[in-house]
Amino acid sequence: MYDFVTGPLVWISFLTFFFGLIARAVWYVKGLNWQMDRVAYRPHMRHGIKGAARSIFFWLFPYGTRSWRQNPVFTFLVFIFHIGLLVTPVFLLGHNIMLKTSWGFSLPTLSETAADVLTFAVIVSALFLVLRRIALTEVRIITNAYDYLLVAIAVAPFVTGLLARYQVADYQFWLIVHILTGELLLIAIPLTKLSHFVLFFMTRAQLGMDYGIKRGGMKGKGLAW
């Protein structure tokens, strides 16, 4: 079992992850309406790129936008959750040892203490984000079981990783479950709403281009929008 989940299944999950995200990006661009979305982008590319870069830049920083500042606690939880979700698996010592063994290279690594702190931060922030969905009516009415399932898929590798690290009960069992849940997360990213891993940048770029060109960005420069 271990050989299978660390061999063929790893390749399947990574190939699904990479090619699936490429496919989602292509479908997003192809889905843009030619008249409404793309007609102004090419002739006004300089203004569009400036608007796209500005939009992405300010949304990538906590409290960089008015929307983030209006919801300070939610913003804090979102950024803690996503930072831990991205940084921990990439720079975890154990993962980089496997990377070095399999592919001959590795990345800088986190200390065990930093990795534990980030892992607990992901789990705790996810719990509070779920409680927020339950507590706030305006969020609860647009939440269904699918949304909770996605949170569970995202957090499962961190919970199982902790159980394996601290050798709770059967270490080998939790190690295999940890690897399986990590592979499930990789596969789920391009196939579900978790695809915002890439589509966030595309939607922010599109909105930024719209505001940089059409919605007042070129006011007084001859554009009718």
Brief digest:
With 225 residues, this protein is mainly α. It has twelve helices and no strands.
The biggest sheet amounts to: none
User: What is the beta-strand fraction?
Assistant: under 5%
State the name of the first-level CATH class: Mainly Alpha
CATH topology: Fumarate Reductase Cytochrome B subunit
Total helical elements: 12
Identify low-pLDDT runs.
Answer: none
Structural class: mainly alpha
Q: Which key features would you list for this structure?
A:
225 residues; Fumarate Reductase Cytochrome B subunit; mainly alpha
Q: What does this protein look like?
A:
The chain has one domain (2-213): Fumarate Reductase Cytochrome B subunit, CATH 1.20.950. The mean pLDDT is 85. With 225 residues, the protein is mainly α. Helix content is 76%, strand content 0%. It is built from 12 helices and no strands. The chain is globular, with a radius of gyration of 21 Å.
